[in-house]
Amino acid sequence: MYFLIEKNVRVNKPATTLIILIIFLGGNVNAQTPLNLNQAIELGLKNNQQIQANELNIKAQNQLKPTAKELPKTKINAMLGQYNTRSFDQNYSISQEFNPFQFQAKKELINANIKNSELELLVTKQDVTSQIRRSWNMISYYLALNNLLQKQEEYLQIFVKAATLKFKTGESSLLEKITAETKQQALIQTRKQNEGMILSEKIKLKSILNLKGDIVLFEDEFLPVKAFVADSVYINQNSVLVLATQQIGLANANKNVEKAQRKPDFIIGYFIQSLTGNQDIEGNNIVYYNGKPRFQGVNLGITVPLFGKASKARVQASKTVVLVQQKNAEYLKNQLSSQLLQQIEEQKVNQSLIDYHTKTALPNAEIISKNAQKSFQNGEIGYVEYLQSLETVLKIEQNYLNVINQFNQNNINIQYLLNN
Description:
- The protein is an alpha+beta fold and 420 residues long.
- The chain has helices at residues 37-47, 49-63, 100-168, 174-209, 239-261, 309-377, 383-417; strands at 2-5, 16-22, 32-35, 75-81, 89-98, 214-220, 265-273, 277-281, 285-289, 295-303.
- A hairpin with a 7-residue loop joins strand 4 and strand 5.
- Helix 2 runs antiparallel to helix 3 (100-168).
- The longest helix is centred in the first third of the chain and has 69 residues, at 100-168.
- The radius of gyration is 39 Å and the shape is rod-shaped.
- The relative contact order is 0.14.
């Protein structure tokens, strides 16, 4: 497992960095997938398994549309025996119970669930897009930091060679040589840790994209992205907030179903039966009927909630749930608005720090680096001053990369909050 990273890339000079990271499990190398950020987002929205699950959920909710007019099971009864006379008679009936008041309420509930599942998909897409951007930015940050550490390592390598040579010629003590080697090894270990962070983010990104093969990234130098123009007015576009608002509609739909269930149910039925024996027809004609079913009719009925305390309680509870969802949506909007303002202010601070580094700190670091190296080679300064100078330069350049990382993260967070 290793990295192939272009060397000698300076932080303050435009360059294109080709990073090839080979990740393999079990020793098998898969086909490589070249990507840029936009391609990664597109691929993530297509391959992510959570998105696929949300799409299936939308399909499932749509498949429930026919259940809006679902009827209870039809009742079919048979009554056989001496229910009329001592003779054996037959009675067959069929009946159906239904509540017409529930049809529209159930339809609205199904549509609300469909809308809810569609918004859940948008929330997942918004979240996946933001995750990809964050992971991509972190990889770019670690790669830029790796290049910086390699550059510092080259400076220390020169220092180690010079200290070793001076020790052999008796111009310096063993302390200078050991100090140089120790600083070099410490920097090597820091770079290895950083490479581990690159690998970790790569694995995370592959998981989000649901990729099996390796990833090859073609990306420009790590620079501040263009600041996203933010306006709290557009916070209502956030999919999470839209979903929270939809929860109010869903709660209302559930409330309407509960109210419809309190209304009467109707029963309609048909029966046919036999009446064995003599029957007086119009008072002057006696007719004998055998046990064959021939007498028929209909039955009508209605069921009413005489004991409606429980159903009334469910309606009241559903009304309370609507209020709960309204409060949740209001709270969420306040939280998102607060987070947006916080990110905007943090981005302003980071922009100020970027301006300071580009105009002052980085040019000074360049001067310090050149003069320290020249002075050390000419014997004008000792190894202590030289190491201090290198550490100062490294700290300035690391701080610059860190500020860029924070600025870009602010921008990603703002894009997430405004669903851009």
